[in-house]
Each structure stands twice: as C-alpha cells, then as structure tokens.
Specification:
Shape: globular
Strand content: 35-45%
Largest sheet: 4 strands, mixed
Number of helices: 4
Bound molecules: S-adenosylmethionine
Number of domains: 2
CATH superfamily of the largest domain: Vaccinia Virus protein VP39
Structural class: alpha/beta
CATH topology of the largest domain: Rossmann fold
Radius of gyration: 16 Å
Strand order of the largest sheet: 3-4-6-5
CATH architecture of the largest domain: 3-Layer(aba) Sandwich
Helix content: 25-40%
CATH class of the largest domain: Alpha Beta
Distance between the termini: 25 Å
C-alpha cells in the first residue's frame, strides 16, 4: 500500500509486538508516512475527518469477543467518502476444522459478512473456496451506508 499510494500516510495497529517489529523494519524507508501502534483497535477518534481507507486483513475472525465493536468503530473512523476493505476467513463445512481453528482463536461461522452488510453499502462482497473447499474466505469492499 505504501508503494501503491505514494502520497498516503498509513497507520497500522496490531496487538503483537513481533508483527509490529517486522512491519517497522520493512517500512523504515518510508519514514514519517508510517505510524505503527501497539494497541487493540478500539477506534481512532483523533483522526478527523477520518480515514480514506481502513483495511482489516485476517484479524476480525480472531477478535472474539469484540469483532462487532471493531466493525462499528470502523464506521466511526472512516471519512464520509471512505472505504472499508476486508479479507478474512468466512466459514467451513467441516466441524473438526472449525474446532481446530477455534483452538487458534479463529471463529469461522460466517458471522462477519452479515455485520459488514449491516454497516456498509457493499461495492464488492465475494466468497471463495480455498484448499479444495476445506474453508471459504471472503473479501468485502464497502462505503458508509
Ligand atoms: C492472522 S494475523 C494477520 C496479520 C496481518 N493483518 C496480515 O494480514 O498478514 C492476525 C493479527 O491480528 C492481530 N489482532 C488480534 N486481535 C487484535 C485486536 N483486537 N486489535 C488489533 N490487532 C489484533 C494479531 O496480533 C495478529 O497479528
């Protein structure tokens, strides 16, 4: 994203210090265009008039409990003409696999897409099969509804 949008300033959040350390190393050349925050995503109300784009990549399915609040916070933190972009696990027909993923803190019960539709008008919402159908993932791009 930092290369694709050369004028943009980017803010990244993660609970994991290790993930942030990797990001910090890789993004060092981009200096003060990048802000990395070691905190849970609980809204960023200082950023008015809001973010142009908020990307959630394979994290909502791990935020249990609290994913509904994160989606509501994104709605608050986006600029009026901003975009949300999400890629994440959707579901799996295999109960043993769902249980295994829940041991790894990932919920795969199709809970995310309906909540995203409730908060945002979709420009694209696509569910796709992965690993021969072992699970499905989705991507969702939306604007404040
Ligand atoms: C499967 S990893 C995905 C990492 C990265 N977004 C990517 O797509 O490569 C899930 C990440 O979500 C982070 N995470 C989990 N709960 C979080 C929360 N409440 N706020 C911010 N990050 C969280 C974890 O620390 C972990 O790094």
């Amino acid at each position: 994203m930092v290369r694709r949008f050369p004028q943009a300033r980017l803010t990244g959040l993660d609970l994991s210090a290790d993930m942030l350390a990797r990001a910090r190393r890789r993004l060092a050349p981009y200096g003060d265009r990048i802000t990395l925050l070691h905190q849970p995503y609980a809204g960023l109300p200082d950023h008015r008039p809001g973010f142009d784009l908020i990307v959630l990549s394979y994290c909502l399915s791990m935020i249990n409990p609290g994913w509904e609040t994160v989606i509501a916070n994104v709605r608050q933190d986006l600029a009026a003409d901003g975009l949300i972009a999400v890629v994440d696990f959707h579901d799996s027909d295999r109960s043993a696999f769902r249980r295994w993923m829940s041991v790894n803190h990932v919920r795969m019960t199709g809970q995310l897409l309906p909540e995203l539709h409730a908060h945002f008008r979709p420009l694209d919402a696509t569910v796709q099969r992965a690993y021969g159908g072992l699970w499905r993932y989705f991507h969702f791009i939306g604007v404040p509804g």
